[in-house]
Amino acid sequence: MSKESGEITPGRRETLVPAKRILLVDCDMFYVQVARLEDPDGVGKEEYLLVGGSPTGRGVVTSASYSVRAFGVRSGMPTAQALQLCPQAKVAPVSRRACAARSRNVRDTLVDLSPVVQAASIDEFYLDLSGTERLFHQESQPETAKRIREEVLKRTEISVSVGGGTRKLIAKLAAGRAKPAGVHVVPPGAEAGFMRTFSLREIPGVGPALAETLEARGLVTVDDILPVERIWLDEWLGPSRGRWLWERVRGLDSSRVNSEDERKSVSSERTFNTDLTDDRALELKLLGLVGSVGGTLRRKGLRGRTITVKIRDGDFKTRQASHTLPDPVESDRTIHSVARNLLMELRKRRRTSVRLLGVGISSLVEGEGPPQLELFHTGSSSESERDRVVSRVMDDIRSRFGHEVILPGSMLGGAQGKADE
DNA sequence: TCTGGGGTCCTAGGACCC
DNA sequence: TCTGGGGTCCTAGGACCC
């Protein structure tokens, strides 16, 4: 395993502040693991296991077992294509609920083990262990990483890989080197050398588009770009992105591990098995999406001001329209009345077959304040206390009897005249 | 073999205000 | 009466991540 770390380092003269000790805990092929744990006697037994999409539909691979990856299957690949490459693979659906629950387990365990934990995604968690040396009896960072890995496995049955370093960027890249089911810690002072082992495309934040721009200048690896002066990167990429890349290739990353980042938006979207052309059919789908977004919003105790409708046409062209209300809202009726208008606008601009429809809400604030005084609040776009109560009663009924019990339209329809004013 | 669903962040232009 | 400059909000689109 990796060398020792954590001692005084010859490489960093300038620091008076002790180097940060950051870990990234990354679940190994998370969705595959969850699928196996949830159905140990069925699909969980399959060596060639692929999670996500349906064999016939339009889905893509969310995660694949290593045996399947050996055939060239990657996440994000259309499931149909993956099955061409690896016909013996069995496809399991993604269980969102199970994955969310397992993710919560892992996070709760980490919160017990580390003072600062940030959930970066459903299967990735940053830990900041700076200042815990005494607490952990001078345990080295690789030892800590190993102990955490084992503790998470014991408590949650989830196998993780752990990367470590002095910055999030380093920890993240190190976690890649730790996979599968291992630990990799980059000692303080070794960051720049570590970065030189990567290609530019491997740096988080460098996607296909930026990689192509750089490649056009003959820049493929970190080593290629190190001799390039900052002014040229600014010139080619703009000052903001230029500076960002200049820092990244040197292993610099000032972002902090932040345990309290609030969510900025809630959305729901659906790709149809076959494209839809009929406006009535689209409106029906819109209703379901609004219910999903509104339900999540209320469950989280949030309200939002900006409503966005997104369409992907049959030719994969993606368009969106949004509208911002003066006051934050949470009821299905209000969200729907805005979303419906936006959908009609989008359809008016371009009326072709629709592959995907989505609804989102942003500009979020904590909801559940004191009831608003309707007296001062009579604009047509504003939401009444009655709207909110109706939505919450619906949530309650759905949570008890399932989503299919009441057609949301029956209640929305009743209030519609009011929405249109 | 066509391309999921949940997010975040950035950019750029126009409106509007001082 | 010939036109500045900065700040903020809104909208649309795009890149990127898991």
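Confidence is low (pLDDT under 50) at residues 1-14, 373-379, 410-421 of chain A.
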